[in-house]
Amino acid sequence: MITDVPQAQQPARRAFLKQAGAVATALTIGFDWWGPARRAAQAAPVAGMPFAPNAFLRIGTDGSVTVIAKHVEMGQGAYTGIATVLAEELDADWTAVRVESAPADAKRYANLAFGTMQGTGGSSAMANSWVQLREAGGKARAMLLEAAAQDWRVPVAELTVDRSVIHHVASKRQASFGSLVAKAATLPVPATVTLKDPHDFTLIGRRHPRVDVPAKVDGTAQFTLDVVMPGMLVALLKRPPTFGSTVKSFDATAARALPGVVNVVEVPRGVAVIAKSFWAAKQGRDALVVEWDETHAEKRSSADIMAEYRRLADQPARSARKDGDVAAAMHTASHTLTATYEFPYLAHAPMEPLDAVVKLTASSCEIWAGDQFQTVDQANAAKAAGLDPQQVSIHTLYAGGSFGRRANPGSDYLVEAVSIAKAHGAETPIKLQWTREDDIHGGLYRPMYFHKLQAALNEKRELTGWRHVIVGQSIMSGSLFSMMIKDGIDPSSVEGAANMAYAVPNVSVELSTTTTGVPVLWWRVVGSSHTTFAVEAFIDEVAQAAGEDPYTYRRKLLDHHPRMLAVLDLAAQKAGWNEGPLPKGRGRGIAVAEAFKTLVAQVVEVSVDAGHVKVDRVVCAVDCGTPINPDIIAAQMEGGIGFGLGAVLYGSITLKDGRVEQDNFNGYRVLRMNEMPKVEVYIVPSTEPPTGVGEPGVAPVGPALANAIFAASGKRMRVLPFPAQGAA
Amino acid sequence: MPTTFVLNGAATSLDADPNMPLLWAIREVAGLPGTKFGCGMALCGACTVHVDGAAIRSCVMPLSAAAGKKVTTIEGIKSRPAQAVQAAWIQLQVPQCGYCQSGQIMSATALLEKNAAPTDADIDSAMSGNICRCATYSRIRAAIHQAARSMQVPA
To answer: Does the predicted interface ipTM exceed a cut of 0.85?
Structure first.
């Protein structure tokens, strides 16, 4: 993992932005929340007029190259990837590149994969930026070349660029980007530009260091938790004990009497204590007495809801895919197979509990957050504040993880923060801080699902029919994404199932969408977090019924899908699949997935000893198109595997009479160091456009583990999370 | 009544509720934001600091318990093991979201200050109290081994 290219600059400090950006562009957002000690350490201001040929790039007269990121950096490496793509076509010196976050602006910074909104999700950052940022870099390069050509009175074709320096070899002249900025800024932006041949890439495809790592190693990286402003207050919100409850009445006498408590306000989501410190706000909230109106609350237990889902799986459902005639295939089959799979609610539990800082005035609302859905959040915050969206500005900071949680159409935590600031009334900046308990209790979970699968095999044991019924809540229903629901099918409920790749003549994928009072949301890899498990665990059962090896059986049914076959073969080969079985008590399992157009196959090796499961090794093969930074791709696969393993082994949010039974990382277990297997990642070489890597690595690991446990112990894991250790 | 202790090598007196967890005293009173809040119950390790050289969870330690002790945060680590850990963290590109990494680095540094050549079992024992939701665990393990190797070379 030693990198090929030297370290780039730290992401730009705001003071730099304040001084440099004010001159040339409308990007400036004046704020300064660092303490005096930090301010002294900030980058020196840039002298003169920077060159800002488009919304994504600014080059200073000192040669500094600032890339403006429209995507949030939440760990997935987006800042580095974005800067890489632009810097590649610019031929910038990587050590001079820095990254800063874009303001909320759908016109300039929309996610082209989403249409007209700015946001990060669906592993789309690189895919939607690929052409846009290469062109942004390439056009700027062309302008700098034109400036040099005019200065030297030579044809552009005679010039070359190497790490931010333009050379005219024949006359032995050279000029830095910084020295050409003033002239380049006067030239027209070219309408078109020829992009590099991939063979000429010097950054793309190389392992180069992330722009954010140094600050994340010395403790100086700025998260929302770290925002401090003069006079800033901290708010904690007491929320209802059940989903759908509201405040009936409250007594704040004891809370208000505590030192440091400044105000107690009722807002639509509960009662907030506003104080001079976190600790005072926490004590104040503990002292609050609130009576809740639970008339409209969801009071069922998750076990009751799952029981209803089991019944619904045998009722008519809507069709998400229909090939041939599954009923006939089942009728004429010589052998049929049925299995059901159960998936719990899951919390995202990012390490940074949700937080946001809001400064609200009569005509403006400024927000600082690890913001993932900037223009959606801008609109929701505006509504809560009683302002126009243009009056809301968003400063996107590093997010301490998200896994989907911060990409929520209702902007829950931001709306809370704005509503608290509004209720407080003063123009004081307020930081809303969630605790871990708030996070675990807070809803917007990955939905609970029940899956029922049936297979038909003919007398030759060939797979002739595949029926897959999914029962669960819709993520998109009732949100601004509801327009994506067609014929009653929320695509995020069936992705990974409706596009199941195996060649089967008769296929029916059906969806029964349920309604509960539990708010739900996408969770890393979204639909494939459950559909891939069901498909890949069940195809293993089918292979067993057909008397065939799970790997070679999959191969036969994927002959038409060369890219999926390639990752499957690569993972199997690197794992030594064909080198004979593992010793008694150990087993290998395989699974493959396509998620967000990225193909991933994994082989898991497991030891099962007296029912105790230990994941020893995971071999992962990935095809994500052109690999932009192989080290970040590997990191995302490693992380996705650890995240997915934690979920299938332990992850579960349960409700008892409507109340969430888990509170913190004791009840809601996640993977820890001692449980992390050895992981090997292999990347398929490709010149296809890049696809995402933040999520797809999560999808196959659960079923590959389930299949490995079967190989080791003969037991099928069909209920998630897997039963407590000792049951396998 | 102020609580007096040594913070990152400097005598420090913090005038705050003695029951306030050390985490919040460090962050909000002393103004050192590198130490993070993750769970408030000593379950995740994001708040790990050194107290008299031992890795402790500052989110459950009252400020009063720090009186007279030496407290070191991510902003104040300078030992050779600390430098080796931070260098290995960069070389192996460990962080993703980065939020837990101050705590990871404090736990890893405390380990290497006591044990110059930890085994995988030693690492499991010292590091399993630090959660990383990005699951950077493989790289953390590799970086601790690398830091240990780098310290075998005379400085």
So the answer is: yes
